[in-house]
C-alpha cells in the first residue's frame, strides 16, 4: 500500500513531455470502445477541446466516412477538430481532411473468438445471419447456411473489425493482401489497443499521449450482466478463426506488435504501472459507486428516444452514484460514468469484457 501510494503520487506529478490534444479514435464494435470514449470525452472537456460530431446517427455508418457527415464542418475554411471518436467505417483521406496533420490515430481490437460470441448475443436481431441462426453453435457449425454476403448489417457477423477499418470483409483470405492491409493500418494508426489486455493498453496509451493517471482511469461501460460468455470447444474456436480469417490475421499481427511495445516499455515497469492504475480505479469506484447496483428495467420505446441497458439477449450494467458525495466529487464521478446515448431504432453498440477463463492469445503466440 505504501508503495502504491508513493507511485500514485508520482503518476499525478507533471510530465516532462507535452500532452497530445489531437486524437482520432476509430471506435470499433464490441471492443470496450465505449470505455475509451468516456476518457476521451473527459479529457476533451477538461482541456476545452473541440470534437468532430456526426450530423445524425454516428457518421453515416455502415457507409464509408465522408467529411460531409460532420456537423458544422466546411473544408474550404480550413477548419479542424481536436478529437474524433464516434463509430464510422474508416476512410483515411476523408478523416484527414477533418483532423489536423499532427493527429494521433488509435483504435482497439478484440480476439475474434470472444468478439464473435459477444456479437452474436448483442446483434442477434440486427445481423440477418445471426437472426436466422437457431443458436450460436448452429452458426459456428455452418455459417454459410445463414450468411448472405453484402446483405445489410451482415458485416456484424463476419470480419467486423476488418470492415470497420475500411476494408472488404467478404474478401477471400490471401496472405499477401492481408499483409498489405496490415501495413497500411500501421502507416495510419500510431497505436492499436487490445481489449483483451485493457489495463496494459491504458498504460501504453497514457505513455504515448503524455497524459496523467486520472486521464486514463475508467470504469467499465456497457458491460453485460445477465449472462456469462460461453467458453467454446477448441474445434469451435478454430472454426470461428477460419470464418473470421481476416480479423484473426489482423489480431495476431497487432497482438505481436502490442507485446513488442510492452517489451520496449519494460515488463516489470508495466506490471507496476498496471497495479497503480488498478489501485486508482478501485479508489475511485469506492468513492463514486454504489456497490451491487442492478441494471434498471427498460421498456421498449417507440419513435424518438433512447433505450439503455437491455438489448437482444443481454442486460447492460449501469453505474449508480453514491448519494453522499460532495459537490466536487459528484462532478468528478458523474464524468466517470457518463455514457454514450444512442437512438432506439438502431441498437447501441455494447462493449464488454472478454470471456473470463477462456483461452486468450498471449505474448508472441
In short:
It is found in: Golgi apparatus membrane. The longest helix has 22 residues, at 267-288. 38% of the residues are buried.
What key phrases describe this protein's structure?
five-stranded parallel beta sheet; 6% strand; alpha/beta; 7 strands; transferase; membrane; 365 residues; two-stranded antiparallel sheet
Report what the structure shows.
The protein is of the alpha/beta class. The chain contains 14 helices and seven strands. The chain has helices at residues 2-11, 33-46, 92-98, 112-122, 128-131, 136-141, 160-164, 175-188, 198-209, 213-216, 234-243, 245-265, 267-288, 327-337; strands at 23-26, 51-52, 83-84, 104-109, 191-194, 310-311, 314-315. The strands form two sheets. A five-stranded parallel sheet has the order 2-3-1-4-5, with helices on both faces. The protein has a two-stranded antiparallel sheet with strand order 6-7. A hairpin with a 2-residue loop joins β6 (310-311) and β7. The longest helix has 22 residues, at 267-288. The model is unreliable at 1-6, 293-316 and 341-365 (pLDDT under 50).
